[in-house]
Write a structure and sequence with these properties.
This protein is an alpha+beta fold. About 30% of the residues lie in helices and about 25% in strands. It binds one RNA strand through strand 1, strand 2, strand 3, helix 4 and strand 11.
Length: about 475
RNA sequence: UCCGGAGUAGCUCAAUGGCAGAGCGGGUGGCUGUUAACCACUAGGUUGGGGGUUCAAGUCCCUCCUCCGGAGCCA
């Protein structure tokens, strides 16, 4: 059977009018009376449903009238203009074959459900309008990211998921082992003998591909990673997940300002792409999820992002006509309330905050000439907060080595990372974009669990 | 992990310490153009678990669990 896709019908309704077509999909709603009934059919190809009209002349009219939501059917009929106001065309059924009847305890109703409830049925929620739209946008956004980098000559690098060092310093890690948990082998001191583990050393799931991707940056000049990362933090917020995807570009012969240019270009490009490629889904978000969405995204696409230093941010916050719970003092990290004030109230658009005190930032960030700050940047956006964190990397061998020692890290763990500074080092920079946070921003969804197909958070890995 | 809130029918929510309810969904019947269709009838409960106070607990107390929001950590 050759099926016409609902998407094709909606894109060119005139071409299909009066034509015989066959469609196959799932029932979203049924309404029927004695001699007439309506089915809204979604076939997965398009956000909107096709209305199917069926009449008592169908041999299985009664059976069709009793079909349950989610049942799958195949319909053959003629496409006609619809007298109803809500759809341009409809399919007048000549035959309806029931492919798979849904049992009557299907939990999704024809009304709004709470996102909390839908999380408990993650296997069924893609069939709702909201999640259908979210995961469509997720796919488009991923493609847009590849498109952006590929068009600019970036090489896509697959950095490892299992990492051999716990030295990346970006948070608690998940251990990877084949040792028997109840009875692990011990060495002479009674400590667990990881020599006998699968990799003959301690291994974990990666928390960032950055250190590894820098190696390829020194060969390909412009590179990026895009893959899953894992944090075993006991974080319980709407913005944190234990497993999430991250995009980490790295550019050689570049400084922090070029890094920010890249981040700004990328954000604008991928948002624009989704607006163009998913108009129905975006319209839905703007109507039902966040009425200021279009306004906000247009603002991002067309404005120049603000760029201020951390020191300037502290000054601005001290002058703010708002009381903060946490004190402002040079050297302390900015709190969520401070970041929100800057990006939401003061500037009302994305803001780069740069040149943070070196004491609160990672070892690999390049120390500025003042010896107090590092060439780091965070991109703050209204509603979501920090969406990107990046920096120019310390390319000077001695400086990097001293930073590692000063921070009490084990020099041995970084031997290959330091080698990059011994063999043809160059200034370079990069950043990490939280993929789910980008989806949240572009859809207006407020919880990371609702933009991740199968979210992993503390105490939650059901699906 | 800390602070706050919540947990009652499949879902969304009511119920002054005194008979556990409604709307939606399900079932049955009706209805010729519906749009979260409509109308009538009907079934459906270990009030998150455990303990306590009381003549009497969904309601008050203790404890544990789970979820939500905020914070910290970060992307």
């Amino acid at each position: 059977m050759k099926y016409t896709l609902v998407k094709e019908i909606f894109q060119e309704p005139q071409a299909y009018l009066t034509q015989k077509v066959a469609v196959a999909g799932w029932i979203r709603t049924v309404r029927s009376s004695k001699e007439l009934g309506f089915i809204e059919l979604n076939d997965g190809s398009f956000f909107k449903n096709l209305q199917v009209v069926f009449e008592a002349s169908l041999p299985n009219f009664e059976e069709v009238g009793k079909l349950t939501i989610a049942s799958s059917i195949e319909v053959q009929g003629t496409l006609v203009e619809s007298p109803g106001a809500k759809q341009p065309v409809e399919l007048k059924a000549e035959s309806i074959e029931i492919v798979g009847l849904a049992e009557n305890d299907y939990p999704l109703q024809k009304k709004r459900h709470s996102f909390e409830f839908l999380r408990t049925i993650a296997h069924l929620r893609p069939r709702t309008n909201t999640f259908f739209a979210v995961f469509k946008v997720r796919s488009l956004l991923a493609f847009a990211i590849h498109k952006f980098f590929q068009e600019r000559g970036f090489i896509y690098v697959h950095t490892p998921i299992i990492t051999g060092s716990d030295a990346e310093g970006a948070g608690e890690m998940f251990r990877v082992t084949t040792l028997e948990l109840g009875n692990p082998p011990r060495d002479e001191q009674g400590k667990i003998d990881f020599n006998q583990d699968f990799f003959a050393k301690e291994t974990n799931l990666t928390v960032s591909g950055q250190l590894e991707v820098e190696t390829h940056c020194m060969a390909f000049r412009k590179v990026y990673t895009f893959g899953p990362t894992f944090r075993a933090e006991n974080s319980n917020t709407a913005r944190h997940a234990s497993e999430f995807w991250m995009i980490e570009p790295e550019i050689a012969f570049a400084d922090l300002s070029q890094d920010m240019d890249l981040a700004e270009d990328m954000v604008k490009y991928i948002f624009q792409y989704v607006m163009e490629q998913a108009p129905e889904e975006m319209e839905f978000f703007n109507t039902w999820i966040d009425k200021t969405l279009f306004q906000r995204l247009e603002n991002v696409i067309h404005s120049n992002f603000e760029r201020i230093t951390y020191s300037q941010a502290i000054e601005l916050l001290k002058k703010a006509d708002q009381k903060f719970e946490f004190p402002l003092e040079w050297g302390r990290d900015l709190q969520t309330e401070h970041e929100r004030y800057l990006t939401e109230k003061l500037f009302g658009k994305p803001v780069f905050v740069t040149d943070y005190p070196k004491a609160i930032k990672a070892f690999y960030m390049r120390v500025n000439d003042d010896d107090k700050t590092v060439a780091a940047m965070d991109l703050l956006v209204p509603g979501v907060g920090e969406i990107i964190g990046g920096s120019q990397r310390e390319e000077r061998y001695e400086m990097l080595k001293n930073r590692i020692i000063d921070l009490g890290l084990n020099l041995q763990d970084y031997w290959w990372y330091l080698d990059l500074r011994r063999y043809g080092t160059v200034p370079h920079a990069g950043f990490g974009l939280g993929f789910e946070r980008a989806i949240m921003y572009v859809t207006g969804m407020e919880n990371i669990r609702d933009v991740t197909p199968f979210p992993r958070t503390p105490r939650n890995a059901e699906f």
